[in-house]
Design brief:
Elements lengths: L1 E6 L3 H12 L4 E4 L14 E3 H7 L6 E5 L2 E4 L5 E4 L6 E4 L1 H14 L3 E3 L4 E6 L4 E5 L5 E9 L5 H6 L7 E12 L5 E4 L9 E6 L4 E8 L3 H9 L8 E4 L3 E7 L6 E2 L2 E3 L15 H21 L4 H29 L4 H13 L2 H8 L6 H9 L1 H10 L1
Parallel strand pairs: 1-2, 1-11, 2-8, 5-13, 11-19
Antiparallel strand pairs: 3-7, 4-7, 5-6, 9-10, 10-11, 12-15, 12-16, 12-17, 13-14, 14-15, 18-19
Length: 380
């Protein structure tokens, strides 16, 4: 019997396995994919704070993000130039590989091509049914780090996330794009935004998120006059579903759910790696207590949910409310907001309050700012 089984060998699952194995626990990671040769549908933007806090692999960095240029539906441009690096863009294949190597180096085992069919919670252990065999893998505890999977969370009785959004991206060869660019507008990405993130050697990652027909909107965006003529070569379009809001419950007897599987994603920008790593750290902290006590019941495991809610709950909730409000704005209303931001001291607040991974304080400060408060009240 293993001490712990982790479902999913992505960065969050492998970081969880690394932390547990480092403490001397017998850890097995199950991964449904048979190889890791294809990049995930992820822009790979990770804040400086995450790199410093978790000592992430710097050799996976492709470029850095400092200046960001925002475009309104009518083409108004708003520039954010903080004067220091805010985040890094990573090679996700190399980044993920480094975290797998870290887990393996510390004693964890990884089993590829193995899908989790079912999880049964027993009094003394967990039994995990896997694909292609009648075998049941046994462990004292299980951590779900499989990414967004509505069917699995429902089958486990954990409920579901509040909503989800579609994310699409492609990598292109492009000219004349240095800073990171963000585009908003209902003809570009209804209720959300599109991005262009420069890499090295004249390449960029271009993508967007929206509720429906994301691939259609991306193809249309690539033909936008703002980009037409700059793009010289297009790659394949990658697609994924991204949760919005957390699961109703992220624990049960002998089980914890972390990262995107739990819906622990920034609800403003949909970035999942940093919040996933934080949840992983809190989950391991809880599991270590359970192993010390020899008690894996809900009373102990519930502490994990209390910890992540204290650290991430307000951010997720505030971002979700902002996105719901933003999704109902018409293009002329978005343009009006840009005009306010360009003339009424809004950017002074942004420079004072902005933190790349934590947006709640900035949102509250902006909403209390008189011109924006009046604007929100008018359109509410």
């Amino acid at each position: 019997m293993h001490d712990a089984v982790v479902i999913g060998a992505g960065p969050i699952g492998c970081y969880t396995a690394y932390q547990l194995a480092r403490e001397g626990f017998d850890v097995l990671v199950l991964e449904k994919n048979g190889s890791f040769t294809h990049p995930p549908a992820c822009t790979g933007i990770i804040g400086v704070e995450a790199f410093e806090r978790f000592n992430l692999p710097e050799d996976s960095i492709l470029s850095s993000i400092r200046d960001i240029l925002f475009f309104s539906p009518s083409g108004l441009a708003l520039t954010f130039c903080p004067g220091s690096t805010q985040a890094f863009v990573v090679d996700r294949i190399k980044f993920d590989r480094r975290l797998r190597e870290l887990a393996l180096k510390n004693g964890a085992s990884i089993r590829l091509g193995t899908s989790c069919k079912e999880i049964q919670i027993k009094d003394t252990h967990v039994e995990i049914g896997v694909s292609g065999t009648e075998e049941n893998i046994k462990a004292k505890a299980v951590v779900i780090a499989s990414g967004f999977n509505r069917r699995l969370s429902e089958n486990l009785g954990l409920g579901n996330t509040s909503d989800y959004i579609q994310g699409v991206q492609t990598e292109v060869k492009v000219e004349g794009v240095k800073e990171t660019r963000v585009y908003v507008g209902n003809d570009i990405a209804p209720g959300s935004f599109a991005w262009v993130v420069g890499l090295e050697n004249g390449r960029a990652r271009i993508g967007l998120t929206t509720k429906h027909n994301a691939s259609i909107f991306l193809r249309r965006f690539l033909e936008n006059p703002l980009l037409r003529g700059k793009i010289k070569e297009k790659g394949a379009i990658l697609y994924k579903l991204i949760p919005i809001g957390s699961l109703k419950r992220t624990y049960s007897d002998r089980m914890l759910v972390v990262g995107e599987a739990a819906g622990l994603v920034k609800t403003t920008t949909h970035g999942g790696i940093y919040y996933g790593l934080i949840s992983s750290q809190l989950a391991v902290e809880t599991l270590k207590e359970a192993f010390r006590r020899g008690d894996f019941g809900s009373r102990i495991m519930k502490r994990y949910e209390g910890r992540w809610r204290e650290r991430l709950g307000a951010e997720i909730k505030t971002g979700y409310r902002l996105r719901r409000f933003f999704s109902h704005l018409r293009d002329e209303q978005i343009d009006k907001f840009f005009k306010i931001a360009m003339n009424d001291g809004v950017m002074d607040i942004v420079y004072q309050k902005v933190r790349f991974d934590w947006h709640g304080n900035l949102i509250f400060s902006l909403v209390r700012h008189s011109p924006i408060k009046k604007y929100f009240s008018k359109w509410r």
